[in-house]
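hey so u asked for the seq, here:
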Amino acid sequence: MSTLNPQRTVDELKELRRLTGNEDGAQRVAFTDVWQRALDWYKETLADLPVEIETDEAGNLWATLRGESEKELLIGGHLDSVPNGGWLDGCLNVIAGVEVLRRIASEGKPPITIRLVNWADEEGARFGRSLFGSSAVSGYLNPDELRNLTDKDGIKLVDAIAKYGVDLDRAKEAGKQLKNAKAYLELHIEQGPVLESLDLPLGVVLGTFGVERHAIRFVGQAAHSGSTPMDKRRDALGAAAKLALEIREIAKRNGGVCTVGRVETKPGIVTAVVGQCDMTLDQRHLDAAALAKMLQEAKDASERFAAEEKVTVEWNKIWEINPILFDPQLIEFADEAIKEASGSSYRLPSGPLHDAAEVARAGVPTIMLFVQSLYGISHNKIEDTKEEHILMSVDALDRLASKTIKWIQGQ
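ran it, structure tokens below
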């Protein structure tokens, strides 16, 4: 008989909140003392289980329950948080995974090996580089891009991670951890409003959005705001403002999301027409062709608005990642597990990136489950999920694990 106890997951999440949070929210920023406190507590929760615990070259913490076969099912998440973060983001995945591990271990030696991984620095909150540990394992980490990163106090990433036994130039050696991986499962809060708006507790994640992120500069002519007639102006902000509104229509037409997150004007004084305007554009879509179309439409619009305002426009790529689709068979298993646990299921993409995306990039069949987020809010101390939905999510993850174990056995 199963010994799964989802209530224990809720209790442990609350205990972790007490240990590593304050009145402003969770403070488990990776590679800090509070993060280490969370790791020490986490190891204590694993102490009664027949697992081997190791930390790899990238700082990821692995708990391995040996099975009859070397084939491995991985379950993962991250204990680190953003500063003043929520009580569930990332850590729900890991603590729910512990409960699934307990249930499997209670039934004797499993037919395959089960591994629970806590990824190091998913958030990138201190140094601005997200998915540190999982990208090291996937092979997509470029040490040279991180070598000179510093935090707000001027401390270099290489020095901060060295305190926790991580050598940047050896981090990618952690890739050997995926040698026998046959599937990867991750449970996460949605961090958005879709499931709540549908009044559904759980959803299957189809994949993570591709991202195109660019810096755009419009250059016109700074001029006196009183003496320059409206028809003689070369207003860089005029073009940027038109683009900021147009990208919303581009997103709606193509079924994606587009965001202007920053706008900066020069000379930036009340008595001058804007001579230079810098803005950032973030575009996301689950379909690569649609993402490319959104980018082209934005570029075409920027040229059109530049001409209208008699200014120039220049684009510079900040970052990009292709859409990452999750495994079709695991999507079906997740759908079944969610229906069994909660009665109904829904399929949706993930706008935020997750460690699961890096595992999928590495070629391991991957799936994520989402549980409803109240108010659609995350990375905030008010982040919350109904306890009954947390209980369902642990049940669904456990059911998904059982289905996936049988599937791996048959390979």
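The chain has two domains: 6-208+323-409, 210-320. The mean pLDDT is 97.
lmk if thats what u needed
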